[in-house]
Every structure is written in C-alpha cells, then in structure tokens.
Specification:
One of its GO terms (molecular function) is transcription cis-regulatory region binding. Keywords: DNA-binding, Repressor, Transcription, Transcription regulation. InterPro entries: Homeodomain-like_sf, HTH-type_TetR-like_transc_reg, HTH_TetR, KstR2_TetR_C, Tet_transcr_reg_TetR-rel_C_sf. It comes from Cryptosporangium phraense. It holds the Pfam family TetR_C_24. By secondary structure, this protein is mostly helical. The protein has two domains: about 55 residues, Homeodomain-like (Arc Repressor Mutant, subunit A), CATH 1.10.10.60; about 170 residues, Tetracycline Repressor, domain 2 (Orthogonal Bundle), CATH 1.10.357.10. Helix content is about 75%, strand content about 0%. α1 packs across α4. The longest helix has 27 residues. The chain is elongated. About 30% of the residues are buried.
Length: about 230
C-alpha cells in the first residue's frame, strides 16, 4: 500500500515538474531556463529535483514525444486501417490533430519557437516525427487519389496544406472562447475532405467516361445560366 502511495505521489510530482518546466520554457525559452528555475517553480531544492529528472533535456524530450512522436504513431495507425476509406481516414486524422492542437496549444507553440535551440538528439526525434506525420497523411491522400475518392493532386503538397490548416489551430483557438473545439475539429475535417473531392463535393471521376459526364453536366449548367 505504501509503495502504491509513493508511486502515485512520484507521478504527481513528475507531472507538476513537467507542467512548470513547460511554462518556463514558454516564457523564457529553452536556452533561457536553467535547472534551478524549474526547482524553484515546483518548490523543490535542486538536489531534490534530481530525484525526479536528470536534466531539462529530459523534460524537453518528453514534450517532443508527446507533441510529435505520439501524434505520429496515432496518425500512422489511422492511416493503416483497412476498414475505412481514405476520406474517413483523413477526417479522423484531421479531427484528432486539431483536437491535440487545441488541447495542447501552449506546448505546440513552445516547441515551434524552440526548434532552433533543440539539442541535436531531440531535434532529430522531432524532425523524424514530423516526417512520419507528413508521410502518413500524404499516403492517405495518395490512396484516395488512386481509388477515385479524391481528385488528382500532388499528395505531398496537399498533405502540407492540410497540416498547415490544422496546425494553425494552436495559434488562434482559445479554450473558453467563442469556438467549441469539437465543432472546430469536425468542420476542419470536413473542409479537408471537401477540398480534395470534386468541385461539387463528390468523388473524383474514375474513368474517361465519368470525366466526360462531369464536363457535360458543367456545360448543361452553363447553358441554363446563358
């Protein structure tokens, strides 16, 4: 029982250290924050802090894992699903990523601002995570283009566009403000899918005959307007 209480208390202290370190990194930058600053913020002595973490690099590595690597793993798992189509995969990925950005906006913004100061090993892990996310989303878009779900686009360029839209949530969304995060996630997910479908929101033509039918429909609309 005592060991369980000790384990629980240690977990709570470690989480508080992480929260306070993240705040300090955001306020002063990673390079401008030292180990003593973190100890003072948590109410521990510097020697006591070493019982929980070995360095501020360890805290930064946890931040990178939470923001970049965990996201990359979740997105890769969604992209690999065989029970849903590309449109549903993209909806899920965009909605999930937008929620992460909304719920952890301060940590994401901190990571972006600190990229130039990241230690080499942590920077490499961060970059690997970013590449993995881009690869997974581009793969989903390429799958959708291949089966006619999406119109013909460059999958990598389209994936970068989707990421730009979703990552921006961390800069404009404010908890408790006018925007409901769930509604934001759903709307961005639908926008991403609609932007990759045909002009009327339908799937892209699967054959030359389908493409001609679309052209004829457009011409009919134009004749009615004239």
């Amino acid at each position: 029982m005592n060991s369980e209480r000790t384990k629980t208390r240690r977990g709570l202290v470690e989480q508080e250290i992480y929260v306070q370190a993240t705040k300090l990194f955001a306020e002063r930058g990673f390079a401008g924050t030292n180990f003593q600053d973190i100890a003072d913020a948590v109410g521990l002595t510097r020697p006591a802090l070493y019982h929980y973490v070995s360095s501020k690099d360890e805290l930064l590595a946890k931040l990178v894992a939470e923001i970049t690597q965990d996201a990359a793993n979740d997105i890769a798992a969604e992209a690999a699903r065989a029970d849903v189509d590309a449109a549903q995969k993209l909806r899920s990925i965009v909605a999930g990523t937008a929620r992460r950005q909304g719920e952890h906006a301060d940590r994401f913004r901190l990571l972006v601002r600190s990229e130039a100061d990241l230690p080499e090993e942590i920077a490499a892990a961060h970059e690997a995570g970013r590449r993995a996310v881009l690869k997974s989303i581009a793969g989903v878009i390429e799958e959708g283009v291949g089966d006619g779900t999406f119109r013909t686009v460059d999958p990598r360029v389209a994936a970068l566009g989707v990421l730009g839209m979703v990552n921006w949530v961390a800069w404009w969304y404010r908890p408790g403000g006018r925007d409901d995060l769930g509604a934001v996630c759903d709307e961005l997910a639908e926008m991403a899918v609609a932007g990759l479908r045909g002009r009327d929101g339908s799937a892209a033509p699967r054959s030359a005959a389908d493409a001609l039918a679309v052209v004829r429909e457009d011409l009919n609309r134009l004749e009615r307007l004239l």
